[in-house]
């Protein structure tokens, strides 16, 4: 990182503008163009005098009132503090000019021990560079620019006019409302003392005047003065009552305005709460609708699965019934075949039975005919004990 340091001569020792001071200022502007990132104001510990305070003011006159944003106060000769920290010296210092300068520089300061060597010296330089980096960071990395840096052809008249403008502005802003709090207190105390002194002298003069008037007045004048005093007292009393009434009415108006503000805030909070509840209600309703939709969807899916399962069961049952019907039909066919076969067998057996019955009937009829013929023969011819009878019996047996 490249660092450029511009060391200015002692042009701030006096606030009188001269041609030499103008040339040095123009040289400083040219060397630090396009603008410095930090301004380091060097002073010695314990020796910040009125001349140093005037030099600090002259720096602001040359660089402008906003240069304090880029300014760092560097104290030298820290060895004179006897080992005490620099922060304690700055905080406990009763030098109001120094306090004012530190306040304007936003509490940016550091110190150098002129007798330091080695690591201590490097630490001091590192602390200064850290403070410079803090200034650059606080100003957004921008360098300081005023009207003089923007002039294409800088002349002594430009510098003189710019310095005069800044000086007039500094004197105009030296009013107590633009001062730090300690300077405001000092100015207030001084003015209060002046008012007391003037008031004491006037009061003493008024007392002497009253005594002279009292001696020179007669009884009538004294009576007139009493009436006048009473009238003045009465007027003061009326004014006091009017002020009290005005204060009371003013307080009442303030109270009414406060109540109106409270009512407005409460209503605003209620409207905000209603909007919040409305949003929550809408969100809940949306969630509820989503849940109901998901439930209906789940129910529809479940119902669809149930219907599919039932259809599958019906299909299986019908398929089983068809299969069972086929088996029964096959069985009925076999049974029909068996029945048909049994019918044929039965028909055969019937024919056979008929044939047997016919044979038996034919044999029976022949036997019956034989028996009838035998009985007829027996009836026609009575049986004898002789051979004819036996012969006829033999025939009958033979015929049977």
Automatic annotation (TrEMBL):
Q: Which Gene3D superfamilies match?
A: P-loop containing nucleotide triphosphate hydrolases
Show the GO MF annotations. GTP binding
Residue stretches of biased makeup (Low complexity): 364-377
Q: Which residues form the AIG1-type G domain?
A: 1-153
- UniProt xrefs under Pfam families: AIG1
Q: Which UniProt keywords apply?
A: GTP-binding, Nucleotide-binding
Annotated region described as Disordered, given as residue ranges: 189-400
Q: Which domain of life is it from?
A: Eukaryota
InterPro entries, alphabetized: G_AIG1, GIMA/IAN/Toc, P-loop_NTPase
Where is composition skewed (Basic and acidic residues) in this entry? Answer: 207-242, 270-315, 350-360, 388-400
Q: Which family does it belong to?
A: Belongs to the TRAFAC class TrmE-Era-EngA-EngB-Septin-like GTPase superfamily. AIG1/Toc34/Toc159-like paraseptin GTPase family. IAN subfamily.
Q: What is the protein name for this chain?
A: GTPase IMAP family member 2-like
């Amino acid at each position: 990182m490249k660092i450029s340091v511009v060391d200015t001569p002692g042009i701030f020792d006096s606030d009188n503008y001269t041609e030499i001071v103008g040339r040095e200022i123009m040289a400083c502007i040219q060397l630090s163009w396009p603008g410095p990132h930090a301004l380091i104001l060097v002073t010695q510990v314990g020796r910040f005098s009125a001349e140093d305070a005037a030099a600090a003011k002259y720096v602001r006159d040359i660089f402008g009132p906003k240069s304090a944003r880029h300014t760092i106060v560097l104290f030298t000769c820290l060895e004179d503090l006897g080992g005490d920290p620099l922060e304690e010296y700055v905080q406990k210092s009763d030098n109001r000019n120094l306090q004012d300068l530190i306040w304007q520089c936003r509490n940016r300061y550091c110190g150098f021990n002129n007798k330091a060597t080695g690591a201590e010296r490097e630490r001091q330089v590192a602390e200064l560079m850290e403070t410079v980096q803090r200034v650059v960071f606080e100003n957004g990395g921008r360098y300081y620019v005023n009207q003089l840096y923007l002039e294409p052809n800088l002349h002594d008249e430009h510098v003189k006019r710019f310095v005069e403008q800044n000086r007039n502005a500094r004197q105009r802003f030296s009013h107590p409302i633009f001062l730090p709090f300690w300077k405001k207190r000092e100015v207030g105390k001084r003015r209060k003392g002046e008012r007391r002194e003037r008031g004491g002298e006037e009061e003493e003069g008024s007392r002497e005047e009253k005594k002279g008037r009292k001696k020179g007045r007669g009884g009538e004048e004294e009576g007139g003065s009493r009436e006048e005093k009473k009238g003045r007292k009465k007027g003061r009393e009326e004014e006091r009552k009017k002020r009290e009434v005005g204060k009371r009415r003013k307080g009442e108006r303030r109270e009414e305005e406060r109540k109106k503000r409270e009512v407005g805030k409460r209503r605003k909070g209620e409207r905000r709460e209603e909007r919040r509840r409305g949003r929550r209600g809408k969100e809940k309703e949306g969630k509820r609708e989503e849940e109901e939709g998901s439930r209906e969807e789940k129910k529809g899916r479940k119902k669809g699965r149930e219907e599919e399962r039932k259809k599958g069961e019906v299909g299986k049952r019908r398929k089983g019934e068809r299969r069972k019907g086929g088996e029964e039909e096959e069985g009925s066919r076999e049974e029909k075949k068996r029945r048909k076969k049994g019918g044929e067998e039965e028909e055969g057996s019937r024919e056979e039975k008929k044939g047997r019955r016919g044979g038996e009937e034919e044999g029976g009829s022949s036997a019956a005919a034989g028996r009838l013929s035998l009985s007829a023969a027996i009836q026609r011819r009575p049986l004898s004990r002789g051979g004819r009878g036996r012969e006829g019996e033999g025939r009958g047996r033979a015929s049977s």
